[in-house]
């Protein structure tokens, strides 16, 4: 048989095998097949005992891909399960730390040595009463006072002495650090995103998802902790927001959110908020909003030291002679931060006249900023306000505003720290004793005569 004939036979046998396979799949009985097909079937059955037919490259690729995908899924499941367990454990641990912190209280540190600290027991006791609300209290607090009156120190003392259930949050000047300030107050890291969470953030688009800042997450955690605390102690916890004046100029929206949350929490008796500020613009803004309906009125105000307290500080704590102490008090009054500064300078050997000029120069810059000096925008109206304040010590807020052409002008001058707004009595006065001292030393600028001056002792 020629090679060509052999090739034809082989090809015919291959075709018959394929035909038999098609018959078998379609259910055609073997008896109906042709003799040649039956013969090939026998040889086909016989060849099945030999090595299997060759698998195509596509089949091999599919098997490899399936194996790889299975391995990847297994690895993902391993890491995801471990990551979820870690995240869950971390969440529970943070919750434990938060509840423990609320139980014990923040107890902020006092950075003033006892020999420099001016004791004000009446103010501290009043603050401690605020920090210990009863079960059904339904209002929040605003505590005001000029910069340098000792609000922060006194608030920290009261918070530390009360301890349990008091969370103290010091609002930073840099609002980018606000989340960290909340984190420090509640004793745990606010952002602990799991590895899985980071992957999902990259894969999934969060365009439509609400964004929460770190301080908002902390506030949410505090709401939950307040429920736990009240269930255990049958009274609300307290959150103290110190230095909220940092918010009124940089981000009023945050102040509004905190005030709204304080109002809702007071309604629900969950926690009591205490806002501490040093600028009149804070109470004026808070008073203008509907959330003010749940604020405790009148507002508590922390003022300067009395003359007796000031003299005791200068003579007993700073060891300054009485005659010199009187001069220093007459210059700056009972504003503790200014009193400490002039006492430091005096004890450093600086002559009183030099100290006085330094104080006057500092005050003159405030008058310049307020445009109250000669040939400045508010000089004429300023003279009228100053004369009336020298006569009566305080002016009603409305009376003060009526000196100006509009509310915006009055507010602008009020924010320059020449005059001070007192929300407790809704009045306006000189911002400090040093302001009045400057006016006495420069009476001609404001057409003030000696008969207009009264000896005013700071309460």
UniProtKB/TrEMBL annotation:
<dbReference type="GO" id="GO:0016787">
    <property type="term" value="F:hydrolase activity"/>
</dbReference>
<dbReference type="InterPro" id="IPR027417">
    <property type="entry name" value="P-loop_NTPase"/>
</dbReference>
<dbReference type="Pfam" id="PF01637">
    <property type="entry name" value="ATPase_2"/>
</dbReference>
<keyword id="KW-0472">Membrane</keyword>
<keyword id="KW-0812">Transmembrane</keyword>
<keyword id="KW-1133">Transmembrane helix</keyword>
<dbReference type="InterPro" id="IPR011579">
    <property type="entry name" value="ATPase_dom"/>
</dbReference>
<dbReference type="GO" id="GO:0005524">
    <property type="term" value="F:ATP binding"/>
</dbReference>
<feature type="domain" description="ATPase">
    <location>
        <begin position="124"/>
        <end position="341"/>
    </location>
</feature>
<keyword id="KW-0378">Hydrolase</keyword>
<protein>
    <submittedName>
        <fullName>P-loop containing nucleoside triphosphate hydrolase protein</fullName>
    </submittedName>
</protein>
<feature type="transmembrane region" description="Helical">
    <location>
        <begin position="60"/>
        <end position="88"/>
    </location>
</feature>
């Amino acid at each position: 048989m020629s090679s060509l004939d052999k090739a034809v036979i082989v090809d015919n046998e291959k075709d018959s095998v394929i035909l038999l396979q098609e018959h078998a799949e379609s259910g055609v009985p073997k008896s109906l097949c042709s003799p040649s097909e039956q013969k090939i079937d026998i040889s086909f059955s016989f060849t099945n005992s030999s090595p299997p037919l060759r698998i195509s490259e596509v089949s091999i690729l599919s098997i490899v891909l399936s194996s790889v995908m299975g391995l990847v899924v297994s690895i993902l499941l391993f890491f995801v399960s471990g990551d979820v367990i870690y995240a869950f454990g971390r969440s529970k641990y943070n919750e434990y730390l938060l509840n423990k912190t609320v139980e014990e209280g923040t107890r902020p540190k006092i950075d003033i040595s006892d020999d420099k600290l001016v004791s004000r027991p009446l103010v501290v006791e009043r603050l401690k009463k605020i920090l210990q609300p009863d079960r059904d209290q339904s209002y929040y607090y605003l505590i005001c006072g000029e910069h340098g009156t000792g609000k922060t120190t006194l608030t920290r003392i009261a918070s530390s002495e009360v301890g349990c259930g008091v969370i103290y949050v010091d609002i930073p000047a840099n609002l980018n650090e606000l989340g960290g300030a909340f984190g420090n107050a509640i004793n745990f890291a606010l952002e602990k995103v799991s590895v899985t969470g980071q992957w999902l953030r990259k894969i999934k688009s969060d365009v439509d998802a609400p964004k929460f800042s770190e301080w908002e997450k902390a506030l949410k955690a505090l709401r939950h902790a307040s429920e736990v605390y009240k269930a255990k102690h049958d009274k609300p916890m307290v959150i103290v927001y110190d230095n909220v004046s940092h918010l009124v100029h940089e981000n009023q929206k945050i102040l509004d959110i905190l005030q709204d949350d304080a109002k809702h929490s007071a309604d629900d008796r969950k926690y009591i908020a205490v806002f501490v500020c040093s600028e009149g613009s804070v109470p004026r803004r808070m008073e203008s909003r509907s959330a003010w309906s749940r604020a405790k009125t009148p507002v508590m105000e922390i003022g300067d030291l009395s003359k007796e307290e000031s003299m005791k500080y200068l003579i007993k704590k700073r060891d300054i002679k009485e005659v010199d102490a009187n001069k220093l008090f007459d210059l700056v009054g009972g504003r503790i931060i200014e009193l400490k500064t002039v006492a430091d300078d005096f004890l450093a050997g600086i002559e009183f006249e030099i100290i006085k000029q330094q104080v006057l120069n500092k005050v003159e810059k405030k008058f310049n900023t307020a445009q109250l000096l000669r040939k400045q925008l508010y000089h004429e109206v300023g003279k009228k306000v100053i004369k009336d304040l020298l006569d009566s010590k305080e002016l009603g807020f409305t009376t003060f505003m009526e000196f100006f052409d509009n509310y915006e002008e009055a507010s602008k001058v009020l924010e320059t720290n020449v005059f001070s707004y007192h929300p407790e009595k809704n009045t306006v006065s000189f911002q400090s004793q040093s302001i009045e001292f400057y006016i006495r030393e420069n009476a001609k600028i404001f057409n003030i005569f000696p008969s207009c001056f009264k000896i005013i002792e700071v309460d």
